[in-house]
């Protein structure tokens, strides 16, 4: 392929890596295989990213960005129903986006386990997890401020609670899908998150 600046090659390599691993699994995403997927020399991958950890971090960031870019407009423009209604609408969109591509959802889990088992990659995964927590905290804060709702618990605590419940439900969806049960559970996750955020907890 013709010479392409590193800044332009970077997103091409990330997209190629995600496409490859989505089809064949995270284990298939070696720098050699990703280079072959795009039709460039393996050295190109090392030149653009510098290390396997940086390459993995870039893939995590792109996967997260794709979801956030689809969900953020709904959070920023959700109207009606106050804080609870806006949050519910946003979470339902997030669920749809997270489950519509099974290959990507599985890739999330595979990369997470792979990174946690590798001391070099663990830091990249930790940074990704903190970034998702930050973005969720920002969205919760935005919804609360727009609807004039004072949060009864710190936004990062509410965000951590929500992510734990949502990601657990997503893992169950991948292992043993049951649409009716998942919808009931999702509504309970929404209700519990609203209760924690507003302080309207059962006595």
TrEMBL record:
This is TetR/AcrR family transcriptional regulator. InterPro entries: Homeodomain-like_sf (IPR009057), HTH-type_TetR-like_transc_reg (IPR050109), HTH_TetR (IPR001647), Tet_transcr_reg_TetR-rel_C_sf (IPR036271), TetR_C_31 (IPR041583). Residues 7-67 form the HTH tetR-type domain. Transmembrane segments: none annotated. It comes from Nocardiopsis changdeensis. It comes from the Bacteria. Keywords: DNA-binding, Transcription, Transcription regulation. Residues 30-49 bind DNA.
């Amino acid at each position: 392929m013709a010479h392409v600046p590193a800044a332009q090659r970077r997103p091409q390599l990330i997209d190629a890596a995600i496409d490859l691993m989505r089809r064949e699994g995270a284990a298939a995403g070696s720098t050699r295989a990703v280079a072959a997927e795009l039709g460039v020399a393996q050295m190109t991958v090392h030149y653009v990213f510098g290390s396997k950890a940086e390459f993995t971090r870039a893939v995590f960031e792109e996967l997260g960005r794709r979801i956030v870019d689809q969900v953020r407009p709904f959070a920023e423009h959700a109207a009606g129903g106050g804080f609870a209604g806006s949050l519910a609408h946003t979470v339902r969109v997030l669920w749809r986006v997270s489950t519509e591509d099974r290959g990507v959802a599985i890739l999330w889990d595979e990369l997470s386990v792979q990174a946690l088992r590798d001391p070099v990659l663990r830091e990249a995964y930790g940074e990704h997890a903190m970034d998702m927590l930050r973005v969720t905290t920002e969205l919760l804060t935005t919804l609360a401020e727009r609807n004039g709702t004072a949060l009864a618990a710190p936004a990062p605590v509410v965000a951590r609670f929500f992510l734990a419940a949502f990601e657990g439900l997503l893992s169950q969806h991948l292992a043993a899908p049951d649409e009716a049960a998942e919808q009931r559970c999702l509504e309970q996750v929404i209700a519990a998150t609203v209760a924690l955020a507003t302080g309207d907890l059962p006595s």
